[in-house]
Amino acid sequence: MNIIPYVNRPAPLAWDLAKAIFGATGNGTWLHPADLSTVFQDAAGTRPGAAGSPLGLELDKHLGGAGDDTKDVYEIQTFGTPAQVAVYDPVTGVGSVFRTDGSNSSGVRFLLSSSMSYQMDVENTGAATLRIVTSVSGTPLHVIAPGGRLKAFVTGRSAVALDTNGTSQGTSFVVHSLREVPGLHASQATTSARPTLVRMPKTGRRNALLWSEDLTKSPWNFTNASGGASQSGNTLHFGTNNLDRIIQNVPIAVAGNRTMTVRMSGSGSVRLVWYQGNGSTGGAQAITLTETPTDYTVTANITTTGNIAGIGILNNASATPSTVTVHRAQFEDGSEATPYQRVTNAFDVHEDGVPDIWYWQGDGTDDKLTLTLASAFTGYIFIAGTKGSILEPVTFSAGAVDLGPLTYTGGTPGIFNAIGGIVGVVLLDRALTEDEQTELVEYYKGKGAKGLLVEGPELVPGDFSEFADFSEAAAAGWVNGSAGAGSVDIMGDRLVILNVGDGANMGRAYHSFSAQSGSSFVVRATLAAAVSTRAKRCAINASTSWPPSPYLINSTGTSTGSHKFAYQASSTATHYIHFFNQDTDAVKGEWSNVSVRELRPQEDWA
Amino acid sequence: MTDWVHSVVVIVPAELREVGNKLACAIGHDVVPGNTFVVPVGVDEVTGYGCRTNAMQKFLNDVEAAREGVLPEGAAIEDFDLTPEDVAALFAKDEDGKPVMIFDVRPASDMIGHFDDVLAANGLQRHAEVPE
Q1: Nearest Cβ partner of B131 from A41, A53, A556?
Q2: Is the CB of A218 less than 8 angstroms away from the CB of B44?
Q3: Residue of B37, B52, B57, B122 to mutate, interface with A, max A Cβ within 10 Å
Q4: Which of A38, A117, A174, A321 could form a disulfide with A59 if both were Cys (CB 3.0 to 4.6 A apart)?
């Protein structure tokens, strides 16, 4: 029998997600920010996506690109009696528009389907402004200056038109294409609500600096102590003071060895130092520069924490003039220099020879992308994240489906904290087989995502039917943390939070659990009694102080119901889940089925 | 493109939310009807609405100019039913001399948690109202 060593086997064909998951008939969407042809900074798709920039439009990838060119579906529109009527050749896309005044103008109107997205590629070949408008003389969507060319997406409109503004002027144009872009695309029209497109090395970020190849950017800080020093780009001219310098501070969370490596060339000599704030320095290395770019490395033990220790390139101790060009710099944990990572801003890090991971990162405040469904949808959503992935059944009504800020429409509140940066989204109108699910998860692990999130063991004894009274609950770790004469009790399967009703004597029960910074938990609790809003509050934090804050549950109205949400710890500390009653009336807050479980990717539980 | 180097949190009083949204449209950061100020803040009731965004230096310059009554070129506020007095109200101070609009800037690399840090610093919290 011939045995073929694994390394010599032919490489398997690349798994094709669109074919394997959607096939010929699957409906839904596939959002994949690693494909830069599908991402744009603005919702109209006029600016290509780039690492570190906002993400305003992400095209559905599952149907594979542009469809038919529909630039030949048009009509000439004329209002009043303009001096010239618009003309258009639907084969070449060449035409012209004219405007005499506000009442007399003529343009070209293209007929679209409002349920379809289109990409329009238009060039203004004339001498006046060309406008893309909702209809001739209507609201401008885009303005193209003479000689300019614009590619823009149009969605949800039954028509767009080309016209011009001004008085007694016209312009000519070429419509290079007006193509359907089929699919269910995600977009965000509001600038402040756009997530950020991120690129990171698959092996993670090590270089703690920002702008590692551009010393003109903050937080690099150039100091001209001699009065004769200057900076021109990355070239520094030091004068007759040994404190002429450039520094960048970085945050040091944990004391320990750090290594900095700087590639420099020039004439004269400089010192490569730790710059630890307040003018003190340490670990200096005196360097005589040559014209050949050379890497210089210093390692030292940083004993002080905070945003105070970092790279410093100082003039030589004898304070004689020198010129240094800094080609690149790296600052990292440990006592050995590792391969260089280029850092621009915090969202764009690249290392040669290491695959890039691309994902979008929301701020957890208002960032989200929105899908607009033409009809109701039932199926499954898969979201691959840098911290973990989810695969869940969904039912959406026609209309907007949000992806963010902290969950998707109808999803568990806060779950995006557990997912992290979004590496990919698949929305499909059927269930996946076990094999398909495995392939999908593994595909995205290869793109930098983690496996499916799985709940761990119960951390809080929340089945109150097991306790005869609160003393038994206390034996299981529950604490009566009431203020004043407020109190707590167990009644049947319920934790009862009692309130004297004077606004000062308020009941509270809390239970602790351990959390690491950044770890995520699924919290469940059922409101078992219909009472006022202030009587049924729940909070999680790392403090036993009264009153607990902020609230995780602060339900409106008086109905009962189950709550489920994801919580992310912001510090490594003992955390507490609090149930408390801040009503000014003597009413009860009653809770049952309380549960706190940690969420981790499946592979991390092994 | 990596010039989005600032993280900015803006919180406006609830009664100025519409003005804030219209101004965001007028300066080209949103489209009508405006959804910039979408995060409700307050304890028992909503007292304000906030947003957080990454921004270029030009945006900070534009805000500083607007504080002095000068709006960016092309910002036709009248097209959005705004008056200079409306805009001035956003930059006004309350009776204690405190700006009515909270405006906070930090490096974009620290955007996670920025909004909640600003809330905490101003004695606010997200209005955690869970409809039932």
Answers
A1: A556
A2: no
A3: B52
A4: A38
Does residue A245 form part of some domain?
A: yes
CA distance, residue A6 to nearest chain B CA (Å):
42
Same domain for A191 and A172:
no
pLDDT reading at A9 higher than 60: no
If we measure between CA atoms, which residue out of A273, A209, A278, A266 comes closest to residue A242? Answer: A273
Q: A275 near A282, Cβ under 8 Å?
A: no
Q: What torsion do the CA atoms of A13, A18, A21, A24 make, to the nearest 10 degrees?
A: -110
Mean pLDDT of A58-80: 89
Q: How many domains does chain B have?
A: 1
Amino acid in position A492 = G
Q: How does pLDDT run across A493-528, given as a tens digit for each residue?
A: 999 998 887 777 889 999 999 999 999 999 999 988
Q: Which candidate, B75, B108, B74, places its Cα nearest to that of B1?
A: B108
Give the three-class secondary structure for A415: helix
From CA A28, how far away is CA A430, in angstroms rounded? 9
Q: What is the pLDDT of residues A428-438, one digit of tens each?
A: 999 999 999 99
Closest CA to A348 of B53, B109, B58, B56: B109
Which stretch of DSSP H or E encloses residue A84? none
Residue A267 has pLDDT above 60, yes or no: yes
Q: pLDDT tens for residues A215-263?
A: 999 889 999 999 999 999 999 999 999 999 999 988 888 888 889 899 9
By three-state DSSP, how is residue A550 classified?
coil
Same domain, A601 and A524: yes
Asked if A400 and A408 touch (Cβ cutoff 8 Å), the reply is: no
What is the CATH classification number for the domain harbouring A308?
A: 2.60.120.260
Q: Which of A53, A191, A553 sits opposite B130 (nearest CB)?
A: A553
| C-alpha dihedral, A463 to A469 to A474 to A479, nearest 10° | 90
Among A493, A486, A480, A501, residue whose Cα is nearest residue A529:
A493
User: Per the structure, how many domains does chain A have?
Assistant: 4
Query: Cβ A556–B1 below 8 Å, yes or no?
Result: no
Tell me the residue range of the domain where A198 lies. 1-62+187-205+341-451
Interatomic CA distance for residues A581 and A176, integer angstroms? 65
pLDDT of res. A225: 95
Q: Please state, in angstroms and rounded to a whole number, the distance separating the CA atoms of residues A164 and A131.
A: 6
pLDDT in tens, B66-114: 888 888 877 778 888 899 899 999 999 999 899 999 999 998 988 988 9
In chain A, the residue whose alpha carbon lies closest to the alpha carbon of B114 is A363
Question: Distance between CA atoms of B41 and A93, rounded to whole angstroms?
Answer: 52
The predicted pLDDT at position A309 comes to: 66
The answer to whether residue A457 is domain-embedded is no
**Residue B110 domain boundaries:** 6-121
ipTM of predicted complex: 0.93
- Which residues of chain B neighbour A208 with C-beta distances below 8 Å? none
